[in-house]
Task: structure prediction
Amino acid sequence: MSQYNKKKSYSSSGKSRSRGTGSTRTTRSNTSRVQSARRNSSGRRNKPDYDLKKIAVGGVVLIVMITCIVVLVRGMGAGASKETEAETTTEAVIELQQEVMVDGIVITGMSKEDARAAILKNYPWAMKVTYNDQTYEVKNLMEKKVDSLLQEIYSGEPKESYTLDTGGLDEAVKAEAKAAAALWDKAAKNGSISSYDAASDKFLFTGAESGRAVDQEALAAAMNQALKAKTFDAVITAKVNTVEPEFSETAARERYKTVVTFTTKTTANSNRNTNVRLASEKLNGTVLQPGEEFSFNQVVGERTDAKGYKSAAAYSNGEVVEEIGGGVCQVSSTLYNAVLRAGLKTTFRRSHTYEPSYVTPGTDAAISWGGPDYKFVNNSSAAVGIRASYANQTATVSIYAIPILEDGVKYSLESKKLKDIDSPAATYEEDPTLEPGVEKTKSAGSLGSYWETRLIITKNGEVISNEVDHNTTFRGHAPVILRNTSGTVAATETSNETVVTTIDPTGEAPSESQPSNAASKPSEGTGGGPGVTETAEVPQTTATAVPNITDNAPTTAADESIQVIVPMPGA
Result:
């Protein structure tokens, strides 16, 4: 053994010496080649060889980098694979070793997923609700219960036996009963107006229809009973009750009446009155079903020359211009006042930029195609009809309906000016006929104003509420001053014509209005946005403050209707 080790050691030593000698010879040989290369180059490098070496070195570096990236990616993939395997292993490792049963189902040795599948297989879910030949499939309410039970079993020290609990599902059961009822419930339809016959100028009636309603309480009780018995494949027949309408067609004919009429005065401007008439004709006969929302722009449509609308004074971006359809805002404002007094709910409304003259400022409703709209919703239980007309410089809107407000209850608006607001800075126009340095007032302008509008609710003549509905800021008109800055005076021709100054339009343009308590919307700016046309009437008068018109004008009570006539100042 000792000799063997010696021989081995000797042999290794010999190899070592041999390699050492070879290494010495190699080193000497390399040194000789280097020296020879240096002598051959005579102190200069061969450039092509040098470039090839650079390329070779770069290629080697590139290969090394690519190799490193590949190894790194494979390592990351392997790591992710190991993590996935670890997760899978962790999930599968949790198996019950002791004897555990759920409602007699042995889940010993099973993973959680296997146990879940075994329990659900033993309790297949197929609960249904039927009505006539229709079926509603009830959502599986036990899956979460099974998951909750297994979480308890697999996260602690399990017991030998468990019972699947079906309690605590009241809210989920009610939701399923409601979903089933939504398929078959049908609201009863009262006898009411359905359309308008222009030839006879009458609203047409339709008969009442019975409705139906699923008894959701009874359905929920039946579902809970099936759950308690663990009859998860129960087929439950829904109990459906007949819902009778509130009133028949005959009763409807007796109950319908004109509940409110609101009237405003127009001017002598024929073009403007044509526009008011056309808009009224389009509005007339509109029928709105319960819950339906009315849109003035949608019902009346775009005001165009092709439809017969005329050019009349209007505001466009705060300037008085001639626009097709000028004056239509008077119809929307008249409608707004009628709608509010009838007890219907306004959903969108904006005031004008300048004070209107045909209604009390703050009780107006500005409209423009592509801009502000006036909207309200039928919040009653029966259809409502709208009558609208124009005649003899008078615009009239009536609401035909079954009374919405309680007997003796009335709604109205009361608008009051709280303060004046300074008029805008004066604007100047050149008049070459004036002496230099001389100024002449072309238009005195007008003050702006701030108004408070309250919703007045009375019962049998007694005020029971007078809350602020909204506040409105109206602009004033800037004074216009004539002057001559040219330094010379132009020759003037003698004329017998009288110059009439026309200012102070009625202001049919959206204003800066505060939020309304009666679902009116605040304005956004003062011009209604780009492209908004704001209608306005231009009386041939100098600027004067608009008087505070109240809604306490004489009324008549024919057929329990309300008629309010608001005179137009200066008309």
User: Anything to note?
Assistant: The longest strand covers residues 409-421. The chain is about 30% helix and 25% strand. The radius of gyration is 45 Å.
